[in-house]
Amino acid sequence: MFGRITPMVKNLLIINAAVYFLAEYILPGVTNYGALRYINSTYFLPFQIVTYMFLHGGFWHLFSNMFGLFIFGPLLEQVWGSKRFLVYYMACGIGAGVLYAGSGGLETLYVKNSLQHYQKIEHPTTADFTDVINVLERHADQYLRIGALRDFKYEYAEQGGGSQFEAQSKQLVYQISEAYSNARDQFLLVGASGAIFGIILAFGLLFPDMQLMLLFPPIPIKAKYLVMFYGAYEFLSGVSQRPGDNVAHFAHIAGMLVGYLILRQWKKQHGNFY
């Protein structure tokens, strides 16, 4: 089985394993420095859109990504050649990082502006406060658990505001704004998943009817259905992301999207995907 591995896939496996060993046992600070931040984070650096791809959040994170590369990568490299395979792999990973960090940055900017706008209102009303709550519910619902925020909202909605409401609501919003700004700067994205999901998409499009055997459960499935399942699962997981779920599902979707756009362009130029 290991004899089928292709040169570029082998090189990527070695590089990712070496970087993991370096970050885990020799230079642990390299992960914090090279991981991708939101584009409006104080700690964002342009090179992070590349370096984050080779950093991982633990052995099993590394293993799952490299297993996907090992399974789906060699056949694509055989068809495309090493150079085109590497270009595709890197483009999917970088594109996923740019889309994810960019969209996340815009979202955090929107939330931050909403919080700051409320603090600048001279005499905020309960309706103004409700608008802030609605923004948090849509984009940062974990911050609704700060203090007695919901109780405060309903308590003062009945009273119609007042000077006490203005002072306490501004203090609450200030606390949320500070916590949100700090969390934004701590945001990290690591892993080759964006590139790997681009690889999975390409495999499903080039070899749609190839039978694959799942590990769990051990049943055969065509490649095109596997891609559909992965795409649907990541989308639904991203939309309904649960507390404690640290997987960047939309980065996976972004990798597939970038991969699709690349393959579409190649097909337009050459009449096929290769």
Automatic annotation (TrEMBL):
Subcellular location, principal: membrane
Q: Which residues form the Peptidase S54 rhomboid domain?
A: 48-101, 178-262
Assigned keywords, A-Z: Hydrolase, Membrane, Protease, Transmembrane, Transmembrane helix
What InterPro entries does its record include? Peptidase_S54_rhomboid_dom (IPR022764), Rhomboid-like_sf (IPR035952), Rhomboid_protease_S54 (IPR050925)
The UniProt record lists the keyword Zinc: no
Entry GO CC: membrane
Query: Where does this one sit in the cell?
Result: Membrane
For this UniProt entry, the molecular function terms from Gene Ontology, in alphabetical order, are: serine-type endopeptidase activity
Topology in membrane: Multi-pass membrane protein
One BP term from GO = proteolysis
Q: One Pfam annotation, family name? A: Rhomboid
What top-level branch of life does the organism fall under? Bacteria
Spell out where the chain crosses the membrane: 12-30, 50-73, 85-103, 187-207, 214-235, 247-263
Q: Which family does it belong to?
A: Belongs to the peptidase S54 family.
Q: What is the name of the protein in this document?
A: Rhomboid family intramembrane serine protease
Give the originating organism.
Persicobacter diffluens
